Amino acid sequence: MPETTNSVEHQTIINNVEYTLQSRTIAQDNGEHYEEYRVLLEGKEIKSWTRGNVIRYFSL
Question: Per-residue pLDDT tens for 25-41?
Answer without folding.
Answer: 999 889 899 999 999 99
